[in-house]
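Now for our target.
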Amino acid sequence: MAMEYGQGYGLGTGSGDPRGARGPGQRLPAVLRAPVEGRAWRELGHTLLSLPVGILLFTWAVTMVSLGAGLLVTFLGVPVLAAALAGCRGFGALERLRARALLGLEVAEPEPLRMKRQGLMAWMGAVLKSGTSWRTLLYALLLLPWSVVSFVVALNVWILGWALLTYPLWFWVLPAYAGQDGIQLYGDETHRIYLDNPFEVTVTALVGLLFTIASPWIVRALTMVDRLLVLGLLGPSRLATRVVELESDRGVVVDTAAADLRRIERDLHDGAQARLVALAMDLGLAKEKLREDPRAAVRMVDEAHGEVKTALQELRDLARGIHPAVLTDRGLDAALSAVASRCTVPVRVEVDLAERPAPAIEGIAYFTVSELLQNVSKHARATSADVEVWRSGSRLMLQVVDDGVGGADASAGSGLAGLAERLDAVDGVLVVDSPAGGPTRVTAELPWRATERAG
């Protein structure tokens, strides 16, 4: 979230200049621009609004929950509690909108209510059993005490800074209307010190400038707590987020498996199956010619023999594409060396593994390197490539480097994008570094065991 926070409020780059040229208003350092930027005023507005919102939320939550708890001796307590939690959920939706508008904080909607059937009773049960409902209630209880602290600090620091900064403009009001020479710095029964001469007025303004410069950053630090509250209590839970990720990953796995089955069916239909059909026809013709023209029959049998060898090779290639026997028997080192030998450019393979990873991860690693080397052969225009495989903690690391023309982009809907989705389905990561002109460096990271999860 720190990255989104910084990117959402970039201080240096104007949207109209792709090179990031600064406009006239951006020539000052960010620390000096902050007090007059819209972001600072939006964050101040969010901090000041938090107090009345916190009072309203706290009053609703305490009143309704107390009433519902007191009525639990009767059936009326259940619907009152459900209404209290439903109201908190509604306030939570408004708070997400306020955070988005004033803090630039994008928070996903929490998981919806899960109801197995329709009706008021089912709705009340879903509200009471939902973790989101209770998290929004906790937010309503925590917001008020924090908003009191942030309101007092932000308002006093902001007012003090601007008041002292503008003191040279309004200090004459004090002798004219308040009966004193200026701001009283010290006073007792016999002695008083006022900030009334030009030097003291100037120093006061400089102190105000320091407070004014510091106030946006102080308010920003206060709003970080608001961000944490909204993210932690009003967004989706980690479990719900993980469920959504797993559902997405399952969809990717299903689509990938279906695509692989279609590829195998197409390869069988267009390759080995077609050759075997032609072979059967040739052998049938050779059988008919065996008595009439033995020499022609022999030639046809020889041709059929060549077709049999080709069909066998295609079947071996297809079987290798499903799961190569060398990978099962001898591991990644031998399997990747075999893949490298079929690449159109020289490939150096270095596998540094003391033991073998899980079979499923080993297969994914093999096919990842295979596809990357195919890209090197077809698109890179390289003269050499390197493949390195090693273990880092509980992760299996792969890296394929070539000296080709570069320009590979995993976000352009290419084969790299599909490969990244496949790795993501098992909590893997694919990183592509391919500047124009090369070299291209593709790094893949996989869990060492199929049951391990990232992070």
